[in-house]
Amino acid sequence: MNLELLNDVFSSVKTTELYGRYITNSDIEKCLEKLPKSKISTLGYSVEKRPIYSLKFGHGPIKILLWSQMHGNESTSTKALFDCFNLFETENNFTKGILEQCTLVVIPILNPDGAEKYTRLNANLVDLNRDAQNLSQPESKILRQAYDDFMPNYCFNLHGQRTIFSAGEKNNVATLSFLSPSQDEERSLTDNRKVAMAIIAEINTVLQNEIPNGIGRYDDGFSLSCVGDTFQNLGVPTLLYEAGHYTNDYEREEVRRLMFIAILSGLFTIAKGVAIGGYKSYFDIPENAKCFYDIIIRDTKLKAGNTDLIDVAIQYEEVLVDKKLHFVPKIVKLEKLLNHFGHKEVDAKGRVFKTTGNSELILGNEIVFAMLNNEEILLKP
Question: Peptidase M14 domain location, by residue (predicted)?
């Protein structure tokens, strides 16, 4: 795995038409126009009749199914996939080996209605990742049909996670997280689970060079309604990828690069042959915890004369207005926040915390500026 090569080539293959968090069908359609039409197909249509596209790369015997934006507001992996597509279309020894050994079928946006509205759910307000058994939605049926038609040897389930997650209960942001889903209530360590674990362990080894201590592992509680658990239950090694937060990267452009590396690392590991014995290293990855807020203002007073100091936690709510994403700061905690961390922290040093309008601090309220005595602090990213 040539990490230096991938970092060197990334800027030249990065899809400039895709930027930020709000990525829709209309965005990727501009990119599809630049790729060979022979590689692109339409698998079907969403609830609101938007096309669900598929792309095919490679001609090898190992079949890998990948899909992104099952949740419409989780777009980082979609950007990274198009960067990978551009790399696949160049002459290079790295992807040559992958495409000679593997055939990839990729669904870049499974939930185009949710992507348009920037919501987790589809247009019928259904979480597609809880619809693997009922198959009540057209998007769920399309993914399952793609699975049945392709009969993959591996599945990559690509998602995005909130900024709250830490890698372990420490001050380490979970910039990326992974899971080899369970396939039964007992969470049995079956061979296909071990294979998925071994691949994740290899990815983790590569990424520790980029984000030391920045990789988390999700809890493997079993739910057959989840797509990853269902495909694992069917005997196919399935990997859950989660794109998280990196310092000051609310547009997730740096995480995009890391996800680009992670996807290619997984494909490279499969192409060269998975050493199943490496699965034990998977358990060295710390389990995710919820230790982060976007901002914590430490040791402040709510009123002059108070002797008790508290912390104020602020979390951004992602709000779409006129097709532009806004990060709206809202108060979520007013208490001492031991064992929690902020992506940004402000030491109030005992000063009184106020809003610019001197209104009362209430949980859930929006707050754009904080006043610490006479110092004004902007709370938007």
Answer: 37-130
